[in-house]
């Protein structure tokens, strides 16, 4: 920000006025009180410091005001995220997604089963029973914990193959994300028998005109957004999912997940995390735009938990230079890989980082490079943290409350503080009370057979 002056102060008040009227567009007085469609969006690992950091990362430094982000526009409340007592106060993505999908707290690792491993009906299963369409669009594999808990049941999030198999019975209309590794040809043939179109290349998505579709665009998770700056994968998948699902007159429930915010948080990688936040923000704006044209659609956005204990400023220094991150050209992981491969690596790294390391910093990178890609990756992240003054307290999750954002009919239900299970219970209460008489939808899938209990490691 530059120093204040009268002109920019006037601009601030004008922008406040315009943002206030802008916010009203999302809740026109003629909107129905009960939504026909529900879009729930989860920023995996997106604790409150991520949305604040994203605001300063996005700030235009040539203006007096700090511009609002989509998160600032849509913020309505907060939510606690703790799992069932057996797992303490810090949740994993599986227990948190189970809470968001069913309204029931369970143990870390649970995929929509309770602490006694009994299956719990999910928002999407209940929506299906009432004749609605369902879909997921995510940047992780589609059978990762968050989408899995909305669609299926298993005593362990680690049972990726069983979860992939179980998706056959979910009758979901749109499945978009990564995960080719878990869907072998024999399984895809069964999806084809059920009328699914299978896509393995992102460019095929544009031509799809009708559900059902299963699009798997990577072996496991999609590449980092920072390494594919023009791909706009999540907003493209979100737009397509809205187009396909809205063909059902009975309405739809769509889950969109910015899955890799969490993965970047586990890696304590601020440059990659901010690019993932930007991709998620763009996807939210796609839904925001859809709601402006379809005032029967409710959007609720939240996070499942915080990851990494990100701090904006660190080490006693009152400073955060997130603007520097905009010049970073690739993930530290990718920069390290390319820097190992080239001789003139120092100028290459400077070009990729958008700044020239000092002599001391260059020496540290040089020492790290001699120890291989992984150590160099770590050294680059440490350098970026030091330049931006970014702090981290954990390579795992933390127990802070998360934010809740909403727009559209019944958005006011989500105002104020609530528990993550309340979010699910409110959404479930907004579903139509009865199945349409013409519906012949299948019942919710049966749970997987009980298998041996395993201790859950803290997975992404
Ligand atoms: Zn995680």
TrEMBL record:
<dbReference type="InterPro" id="IPR017850">
    <property type="entry name" value="Alkaline_phosphatase_core_sf"/>
</dbReference>
<feature type="compositionally biased region" description="Low complexity">
    <location>
        <begin position="435"/>
        <end position="452"/>
    </location>
</feature>
<keyword id="KW-0597">Phosphoprotein</keyword>
<dbReference type="InterPro" id="IPR001952">
    <property type="entry name" value="Alkaline_phosphatase"/>
</dbReference>
<keyword id="KW-0479">Metal-binding</keyword>
<feature type="signal peptide">
    <location>
        <begin position="1"/>
        <end position="23"/>
    </location>
</feature>
<keyword id="KW-0862">Zinc</keyword>
<comment type="similarity">
    <text>Belongs to the alkaline phosphatase family.</text>
</comment>
<keyword id="KW-0732">Signal</keyword>
<protein>
    <submittedName>
        <fullName>Alkaline phosphatase</fullName>
    </submittedName>
</protein>
<keyword id="KW-0460">Magnesium</keyword>
<keyword id="KW-0378">Hydrolase</keyword>
<dbReference type="InterPro" id="IPR018299">
    <property type="entry name" value="Alkaline_phosphatase_AS"/>
</dbReference>
<dbReference type="Pfam" id="PF00245">
    <property type="entry name" value="Alk_phosphatase"/>
</dbReference>
<feature type="region of interest" description="Disordered">
    <location>
        <begin position="435"/>
        <end position="460"/>
    </location>
</feature>
């Amino acid at each position: 920000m530059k120093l204040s002056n009268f002109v920019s102060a006037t601009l601030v008040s004008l922008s406040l006025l315009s943002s206030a009227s802008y916010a009203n567009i999302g809740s026109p007085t003629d909107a129905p009180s009960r939504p026909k469609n529900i879009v729930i969006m989860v920023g995996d690992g997106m604790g409150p410091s991520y949305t604040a950091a994203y605001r300063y990362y996005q700030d235009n430094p040539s203006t007096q005001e700090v511009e609002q982000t989509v998160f600032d526009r849509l913020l309505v409340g907060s939510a606690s995220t703790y799992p069932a007592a057996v797992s303490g106060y810090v949740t994993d993505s599986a227990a948190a997604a189970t809470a968001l999908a069913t309204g029931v707290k369970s143990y870390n690792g649970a995929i929509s089963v309770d602490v006694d491993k009994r299956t719990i009906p999910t928002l999407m299963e209940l929506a299906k029973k009432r004749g609605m369409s369902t879909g997921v669009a995510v940047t992780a594999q589609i059978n990762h914990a968050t989408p899995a808990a909305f669609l299926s049941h298993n005593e362990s999030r680690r049972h990726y193959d069983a979860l992939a198999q179980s998706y056959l019975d979910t009758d979901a209309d749109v499945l978009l994300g990564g995960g080719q590794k878990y869907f072998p040809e024999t399984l895809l043939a069964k999806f084809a028998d059920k009328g699914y179109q299978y896509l393995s290349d992102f460019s095929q998505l544009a031509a799809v005109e009708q559900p059902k579709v299963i699009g798997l665009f990577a072996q496991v998770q999609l590449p980092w957004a920072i390494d594919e700056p023009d791909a706009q994968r999540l907003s493209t998948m979100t737009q397509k999912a809205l187009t396909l699902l809205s063909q059902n007159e009975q309405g739809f429930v769509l889950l969109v997940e910015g899955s890799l915010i969490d993965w970047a948080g586990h890696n304590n990688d601020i440059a990659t995390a901010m690019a993932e936040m930007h991709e998620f923000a763009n996807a939210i704006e796609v839904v925001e735009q859809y709601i402006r044209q379809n005032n029967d659609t409710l959007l609720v956005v939240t996070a499942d938990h915080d990851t990494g204990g990100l701090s904006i400023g660190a080490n006693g220094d009152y400073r955060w230079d997130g603007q520097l991150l905009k010049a970073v050209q690739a993930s530290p992981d990718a920069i390290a890989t390319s820097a190992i491969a080239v001789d003139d690596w120092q100028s290459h790294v400077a070009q990729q980082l958008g700044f020239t390391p000092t002599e001391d910093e260059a020496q540290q990178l040089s020492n790290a490079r001699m120890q291989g890609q992984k150590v160099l990756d770590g050294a680059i992240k440490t350098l970026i943290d030091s330049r931006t003054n970014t702090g981290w307290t954990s390579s795992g999750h933390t127990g802070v409350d998360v934010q809740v954002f909403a727009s559209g009919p019944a958005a006011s239900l989500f105002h104020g503080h609530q528990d993550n299970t309340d979010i699910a219970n409110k959404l479930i209460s907004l579903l139509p009370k009865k199945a349409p008489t013409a519906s012949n939808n299948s019942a919710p899938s049966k749970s997987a057979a009980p298998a041996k209990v395993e201790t859950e490691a803290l997975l992404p």
